[in-house]
Amino acid sequence: MELNPPILSGWFDANLIARIAVAAVLGLLLGLDRELRGHSAGMRTHGLVCVAASAMTVSAIGLYHTLGGARMDPLRVYEATGAFVGIIGAGLIVFSRGRVHNLTTAANMWLAAVIGIACGAGQWPLVMVGAVISLIMLTLLRLVEPLGRERRRLKDERNG
Fold first, then answer.
1. Do the bridges between strand 94-96 and strand 99-101 make them parallel or antiparallel, or are there none, so unpaired?
2. pTM of the model
């Protein structure tokens, strides 16, 4: 069996460390909202998904270049990540008392994976724009959501 040449430990460089470290920090920040709300997939879960997606992407790109692109399709990283996060997300989503719970957590897990992939690929503008917009949505919309819940409660009281 032909294997790719090993990468020696001297290959650790700032670029590799930055890709994984940024994924870790952003994954933890994305999970902070879920953690503060007491959901089962919190900071550690989001951080791990983001780091795993980043490391998987770095590995896929590295193997692609090592093998000259002859036998690999780096887009399979997205396929594998999508399948994995889909399984986790499906396990998180619960239907209880006539309501669906954890949809935002499942979507947030997918976001952590995508941001991890972008970190692994070194797509820094995409990482920053995606992370900033996502964090704004998660924090600012938390202020608006109680208003919607109050409207639903009042509507339910009127109807029933």
1. antiparallel
2. 0.69
